[in-house]
Amino acid sequence: MQTTTKTRDRRSTESAHYVNNADFLAALIEHKNNVKEALARGEEKPVLSNYLGECFLKIATHLSYKGNFVGYSYRDDMISDGIENCLVAADKFDPEKSSNPFAYYTQIIYFAFVRRIQKEKKQQATKYKMLENVDLEQLLAHSDGNEEYINKIIDLMQKQMDNIEPERKEIK
User: Fold this and answer.
1) Cα distance between residue 35 and residue 67, in whole Å
2) Rounded to an integer, what distance in angstroms lies between the CA atom of residue 25 and that of residue 165?
3) How far apart are CA 38 and CA 79, in angstroms?
4) Is residue 47 scored above 80 in pLDDT?
5) Residues 6+ apart with CB under 8 A from 56
6) How many whole angstroms separate alpha carbon 91 and alpha carbon 124?
7) Which of 11, 40, 60, 114 could be disulfide-bonded to 82 (CB atoms 3.0-4.6 Å)?
């Protein structure tokens, strides 16, 4: 009876903690030692292990489900940015200063997400500014009297203009 309780407890702990911090730390220390040895021999830095890559992916994916990130259509780009930043910072974690690589890389991913959101909002603002400055008269002049073409342009522009104001208020 005790064995099943322990097994059940271990499973619930594993699902709650999708990245085991102790294993993650051990893998980072091993990678750091491999890098030191390779550089001492004059070789290239070794590639990160699959386990470390999986940890970065899991952290980024789970963080993207957080309430302040879940609603964005470019969530995949955010995850990619987070993983990329982790790969760049893979050798920068110092186990002598901290034994919590999960928190370290979660912060890196968090700020990568924030940077992506800022970048996307700037691009949206640029797009909206361009739409506001479109010369409809010039577009319609090149339509050669095609009524269907004119109606499609007007409908498209109306939809875009209706979306501009609420989103611009949100961007500001």
Assistant:
1) 37
2) 48
3) 30
4) yes
5) 82, 83, 86, 87, 105, 109
6) 35
7) 60
What distance in Å separates the CA atoms of residue 36 and residue 98, rounded to the nearest whole number? Answer: 19
Residue 38 half-sphere exposure toward CB, CA atoms < 13 A: 12
Closest C-alpha to 100, from 37, 5, 22 = 22
Tens digit of each residue's pLDDT (9 = 90 or more) over 138-169: 666 666 666 777 777 777 777 777 766 555 55
Rounded CA-CA distance 110/89 in Å is 14
Angle between helices 101-132 and 21-40 (to 10 degrees): 90
Retrieve residue 74's tokens: 């470019």
Q: Which residue do the tokens 């955010």 mark?
A: 78
